[in-house]
Amino acid sequence: MHERDEWLAEWSRTVTEVERGYELTFDDYLNDLDVRHKLRVITEADDQWADLLELDTRFRNATFPSGRCVWGEENADAEGWDKEKHWYYWLLPKKQGLAFEAEY
Questions:
Q1: pLDDT over 70 for what percent of the chain?
Q2: Minimal CA–CA distance to 32: which of 73, 65, 68, 63?
């Protein structure tokens, strides 16, 4: 399996978890968002594009705006993350389990 396919499968699992109610910790969530960040290499020319768009739509529907970068504004500035381009870093799950305590 190609690395991108593995990332896409992992992102799919994350999206499903977020839809059901994210039961893992905030740190786990940050790591899951980093998987989505890796997927930025997929473009409209790639076979996985439609799948990524569908997953992203589902993710957006299961989250709400956090008001700031979940990794922290210092990290966003240091990494050059933009709220529009790296939108996933500005969202939190609507349904959060007891282990999820946002620390940003």
A1: 97
A2: 63
